[in-house]
Amino acid sequence: ARRESAADITPEMINHLLTTARRTFDLTFLDLNGYPDNAATVCGVRNADIRLLVARPRFDSYRLGWGEWYDCYWKYCGLQPRDIQLVMNRTVSPRDASKAADYLGMPLAGVIPEVPGDLGWKSVDEGLPLYDQAGAESFTHAIHMLASSFAKDAGLDMHLPDRVKQRLWSRITATLG
After folding, report:
1. CB contact at 8 A, 104 and 79
2. What is the pTM (predicted TM-score) of this model?
3. Which residues contact 45 (CB under 8 A, 6 or more apart)?
4. Rounded Cα distance, 7 and 4, in Å
5. Which of 38, 78, 147, 150 is 20 to 30 A removed from 170 (C-alpha atoms)?
6. What is the predicted pLDDT for the residue at 120?
7. Residue-by-residue DSSP string for 14-32
8. Contact at 8 Å (CB) between 14 and 117?
């Protein structure tokens, strides 16, 4: 929900959405915005099976941004940093991701590498998912590993036909790209 329409969405609506998604789909990703105090965000995070913080390896992205979120609201909901997993997006060094996870007190779920050249910005500007783009093989591999771990945790059979895997990975990468 956008900030201006947050008042129109009730906790019951979000809980119904999550319940329906759980009954309908094997795996559901709920991409939330940066406003920690609206009903969609609060209910989505509180009722999620797995919680991810996707951040960039920049001071303002994971240290300041998360601190404001957590201190503003999440610690009052009973969530601890260890209840959330970090996905470090667009990183150059996996070591930096480990340091960030340690700093935040979160387990590290995955590291998505920076893609070479302008591929990442082109993806954002033109809305083209990076998955399976020439030159983004390291990104594709990292997304596959991350998605596979979520699917395994959800008890999904990873021996799906390639066309089904392609659609699943493309949808996941659209939220992380």
Report:
1. no
2. 0.78
3. 32, 51, 74, 77, 79
4. 7
5. 38
6. 81
7. HHHHHHHHHHH-S------
8. no
Question: Chain centroid to CA 72: how far?
Answer: 20
pLDDT in tens, 27-39: 888 877 666 667 7
**Rounded alpha-carbon distances, angstroms, from residue 26 to 16, 84, 157:** 16, 21, 10
Who contacts 175 (Cβ-Cβ below 8 Å, separation ≥6)?
Answer: 29, 31
pLDDT digits (tens, 9 = 90+) for 117-129: 888 888 878 888 8
* Token pair for 2: 């956008």
∠ CA 143-1-47, nearest 5°, is 65
Say how far apart CA 28 and CA 40 lie, in whole Å.
15
Please count the other Cβ atoms lying within 10 Å of the Cβ belonging to residue 40: 22
Enter the tokens of residue 155.
Answer: 């008890």
Q: List the structure tokens of 29.
A: 């990703």
Instruction: Measure Cα distances from 66 to 45, 52, 53, 62, 86 in Å.
Output: 14, 12, 8, 5, 11
